[in-house]
Amino acid sequence: MNVGLPRMHKEAGERRDFLPRFVSVLESSGATAITLEEGYGSGMDIPAAAYEAASSRVRFASYEETLAQDLVVVVRCPEERVLRALRPGTMLLSMLHFPTWPARARLLADSSVRAVSMDGIVDDRGRRLVEAIESVGWNGVGAAFREIAVAHPMFAHPERRPLRVTCLGAGAVGGHAIRAATHYGDPQLREELVSKRVPGVEVTVADFDLTWHEDYMVSRLRETDLLIDATARLDFTRPVIRNEWIGELPPDAVLLDLSADTYDFSLRPPKIKGIEGIPEGNLDQWVFHPDDPAYERLDPRVNTGNRRLALSCYAWPGLSPRQCMETYGSQLEPVVGLILADPAKRWEPEGGSYEQRAVARAEVTTWLSTAAA
Amino acid sequence: MAVDGRRMTLGLPRMRKEPGERRDFLPPFVREIAPHAAGVVVEEGIGSGMGVMEDEYQGPGVVVGTHEDAYAQDVVLVVRIPDAAELRLLRPGTTLISMLHFPTRPQRVRRLRRMNIDAVSLDSIVDDEGIRLVEDPEAVAWNGLDAAFGVLEHTHPRFWGPRRQPVRVTILGAGAVGRIAVEAATKCGGAARFQRLEDAGLPGIEVVTVGRNLTRDRAYMRERLRVTDLLVDAAARHDPWEPLVPNTWIGLLPRHAVVCDLAVDGYELDTKPPTVRGVEGIPAGNLDRYVIEPDDPLWDTTIPAGVDSRNRRVVVSCYSWPGVHPRACMQRYDTQLTPLMATLLDRGGVGGLQPLRSPQDRALLRASLRGWPRRRGAALSRSLGADRRPA
User: Fold this and answer.
1) Which CATH number fits domain B137-319: 3.40.50.10770, 3.40.50.11190, 3.40.50.720, 1.10.287.80?
2) Which residue from A308, A365, A286 is spatially nearest to A11, judged by alpha carbons?
């Protein structure tokens, strides 16, 4: 099977590509040829020679040529026009997010593309096997504390009071964010401050059973230094923190958006971010001061009257690209091993080995039949 | 044993720690692993603690044997560490896979080495990112918090009453167990209780997590403990000779407060310096009894003399929290262990593992006694990628 590894062309700050080790895994798993897009790895300063050293079956070619291979592996989903151009029979391994993009699933199935969604590869208990949720928590919280360290005059002073973090949501992302927050998002910085006897960080978690309680939330927000949105909402039409509540935060408080929710006024009722009135960031810009022009680019129907320094990024793991791709590469090893060992095989979500069941659950045909049921 | 191309036999003995220990591997796991082994011996009575019939295990390559038979196989898999008498049943060269806790049990490591046991410690099996592959922190946290809220809803004077303030939970530690404990606490330890809370329209749970850098702040801790309804110890301490919460601080907790012990540290007063529990002066429970009232005899039998235990609240503590719901626990371990056991048996034991071949090979090697001394020198761990810390 020939494998294609295209680059991701979402924004200039997107620097991630699979590492040479993953290429050597593809070869040892049985890939007959491995086609990398020109410039692959350059965002992380990895020279072409490193990939060529990892496998003698590597060659570099255009973006279009990488997409013409039997198996195409790319983390972020290509644009719709690219999906439409894939030839029938292509196997696509990518973050396809079928539940939130059902039209994409139908398009791929109708095009006879055998798509496997990385985010849909789950074990028998439903646990995702390909994810970088830990990086979401640590990268986001680390970035937020770097801003707090600059703005807080007593940040590293032994006489300051404990910093107060309020985390909305206690799920998978919230769990990592909480741990990261107790470490200032940086274990080395934490050790440094502990050794100086600087008081630490109190993390208060408020889930949806408490965020509705206005008296509690307002009193909590008044003493919050860092507010984190790590919610996974079922109702996107109502914010967790209304813009009026942002006005209750201290003036130097920081807002951190880990949820990657968006605004969408094409929907009725419209979709609103969990913290109302903060901009949508990406790998080119994730820090927004209250006077940032990004606020003016938001739909005018978004209430942005109350502002604080805000951090938001659609792809937080991309802030540490090499570490992120080490994670994904390692997690995908058994998946590509399975695919390349027997490309024609059809896996069953209730049969076969542990890996076969996990990958079968992520196939577009399985997902569509499950969704239809 | 059983290398040189010969396929290996597998033994699955039962655990006999206390009557409340009901866990055994489940039939689907045995069926899935059997084709990778030369034969599987399951101990008679397997599954009975969970209502599983012995004949559900029957299948090609699977036989029922005695406790001794199960321990006489090439590879022996048992979740909790066998006791001294059971260890003596192992033949030299046996591969023993169990929760062996190499880092904190140096005497055990020396003994296994003396016995020429090819041990693999389940608690040391980590992936390339250093994340444990065989564990059940969800069960530790959820089962522990369920037990704790089960007590608190009776001790708290207004838990189900109108116009109460949010229930306040303080969690020590934000590691693997602590993170999940946060989620479990926000859901009152269980879906049914949480639903009842929602239906009643009562304010939910405020959870505060404090890490090591704040537990040292006496003023903060004393203030926080005074308003804490439920104190949870989920800390993995670097200095186990220092309690995080001295016994005198327990006296600051409201009378109705509950202490939930998820850390299950031990007292070892004959070591230098002596190691103590994170919350000083609380007893240790087990699967037979994990709710311990202030006047329970366990305070006298499990706390060494010399440890201050004068300040008491109701404690929930269990050495094996996952065992409270044995079937769910074993389903999880079965899922986690299937690819690892298949790899180990396919390779003919630890000696046949190939670090460049698969993540499972590397994970098993990191957890093996063969890799342990080299791991301390970091050479093996670097070559296997284990020194990469999580972000």
Assistant:
1) 3.40.50.720
2) A286
The residues in B 342-361 lying below 8 A from A, measured between CB atoms, are: 342, 356-359
Instruction: State the residue range of the domain holding A10.
Output: 2-130+321-372
Strands A309-312 and A2-5: unpaired
CB atoms A201 and B213 under 8 Å: yes
What pLDDT score does B206 carry? Answer: 96
Of A280, A299, A318, the residue that ends a domain is A318
Put simply, the answer to whether A178 touches B206 (Cβ < 8 Å) is: no
A60, A192: one domain: no
Tens-place pLDDT, residues A265-305: 988 889 899 999 999 999 999 999 999 999 999 999 999 99
Set of chain A residues whose Cβ sits within 8 Å of the Cβ of B175 = 179
What global pTM score does this model have? 0.83
Residues A19 and A48 in one domain: yes
Phi, psi angle pair for A324, to nearest 5°: -60, -45
ipTM entry: 0.81
Distances (CA, A) of B366 to B53, B80, B222, B390: 36, 19, 42, 16
* A255 shares a domain with A141: yes
The domain boundary residue, chosen from A318, A337, A357: A318
pLDDT band at B377 (very low <50, low <70, confident <90, very high): very low
| Nearest by Cα to B140 from B99, B181, B188 | B181
- By percentage, how much of chain B surpasses pLDDT 70? 92
Counting as low any pLDDT under 70, the low residues of chain A are: none
pLDDT of B103 > 80? The answer is no
Token output for B365: 């090697």
pLDDT of residue A309: 98
Q: Which of A124, A200, A213 sits opposite B213 (nearest CB)?
A: A200
Question: Residue A200's domain is classified under what CATH number?
Answer: 3.40.50.720
Here the tokens at position A238 are 């109502």
* Partners of residue A209 in chain B, C-beta under 8 Å: 186-187, 194, 197-198, 203-205
Q: A294: buried, middle or exposed (CB in 10 Å: 19+, 13-18, 0-12)?
A: middle
Residues 6+ apart with CB under 8 A from A322: A19, A44
| Domain coordinates in residue numbering, chain B | 9-124+326-384, 137-319
User: In this structure, what token pair is assigned to residue B363?
Assistant: 């994970």
Check whether residue A97 and residue A160 sit in a common domain: no
* CB pair distance less than 8 Å for B390 and A205: no
For domain B9-124+326-384, the question of CATH label 3.40.50.720 is answered with yes
Q: What band does B356 get if pLDDT is binned at 50, 70 and 90?
A: confident
Q: Do A202 and A57 share a structural domain?
A: no
